[in-house]
Amino acid sequence: MWVFILLLTSLSFGVCPGTLNVALEMSSETVDKVGKTFRRADVFVFIPVEKKLIKKEVNILESEHEIQKVGNHLFHIDVSVKNKTSVVSEDAVLEQPVGEGSDIEGRIEAKRVISRMPFIFEPISLYPTDIRPGKIIIKLPTIKPGEELELSYTVRGEAGKPVVKSSKRIEVENDERLYMLVAKYSILFGYGKTDTEDVNLQNLREVVEGFKMAGLKPIVKIVGVADGKTVNIERNREVAKERARFVAKELLGDNFACYIRRAYAEGVR
Predict the structure, then answer these.
(1) Considering only CA atoms, which of 52, 33, 19 is closest in space to residue 177?
(2) Closest to 2 in 3D by CA, of 157, 142, 183, 175
(3) For the domain 61-167, what is the CATH code?
(4) What residue ranges in 116-261 does DSSP mark as E strands?
(5) What's the CA gap between 227 and 235, in Å, rounded?
(6) Which of 132, 171, 174, 259 gets the highest tally of CB atoms within 10 A of its CB?
(7) How far apart are the C-alpha atoms of 219 and 181, rounded to whole Å?
(8) Residue 6 to residue 64: CA distance in whole angstroms
(9) What Å distances lie between residue 160 and 29, 77, 163, 261, CA to CA?
(10) Pairwise CA distance, residues 166 & 187, whole Å
């Protein structure tokens, strides 16, 4: 059995109620090689083995922005700044990258959001405090924990993505779980087929059910594969996708529709 420790941080999983308590990811691929060994779905089963506490420093402010071109060399920019920490921000600035000769046109509309429902805000007067080559700097007011600022302004000329900066950073703790690859199955399909009675389907069900009975929630990654024997490349891609979906349906039963409906399973690529 192929076993190793793998830190899974980039997969997107979800839980769907039902008889099998599993998390799922699906993907697909086509290969240039030809032969029955390349007409398959590979299934990888992972189980959690331990948690790892990761500490890292992050900025105390979060920001989002939207840039819209509203005319010839005219850009409207909206920026939202949030403080979701317990630390007061007192020295934050917004840096707006601009091209040579560009400038903020008119006034900066700014408000401190007090409540979202109902929407209550306090108007704030903000102005550019420094103009340097390639950027305009706007000094932001004090932002208390839980507060949010909204800025809206227009740049005439070239405008880049605004960046909110603060000297204050905090240390946060994130739990990241270590997973072990405990089983790998290759489920074979006939030429052009998207269903199969391969014995490994039953083996897969028994392994996943066994982990469930042991109180573990396995993570199942399914990769549908199609070989290069085809005259229709697009159809070949669909075959690879359908092979992954078939295995998922066989494993999850009625739960498969729940995964798709609630967008818990990754779309088969």
Answers:
(1) 52
(2) 183
(3) 2.60.40.2110
(4) 120-126, 128-132, 135-139, 148-156, 163-165, 169-188, 219-226
(5) 12
(6) 259
(7) 9
(8) 33
(9) 37, 10, 9, 38
(10) 53
Q: Is residue 164 within 8 Å of 151, Cβ to Cβ?
A: no
Query: Tens of pLDDT along 187-227?
Result: 999 988 999 999 999 999 899 888 888 888 888 999 999 98
Contact 44, 215 (CB under 8 A): no
Say what the pTM is.
Answer: 0.50
SS3 38: helix
- Taking each helix axis from N to C end, the angle separating 200-213 and 233-252, rounded to the nearest 10 degrees, works out to 40
Q: Enumerate the domain spans of the chain.
A: 5-54+174-261, 61-167
Q: What is the pLDDT of residue 60?
A: 87
Q: How many residues does the chain have?
A: 269
Phi, psi dihedral angles at 229 (to 5 degrees) = -85, 95
Enumerate the H helices of the chain as residue ranges. Answer: 200-213, 233-252, 255-261
Nearest to 154 by CA among 79, 80, 94, 77: 77
Contact between residue 219 and residue 45 where contact means Cβ atoms under 8 Å apart: yes
Beta bridge partners of 137: 95, 130
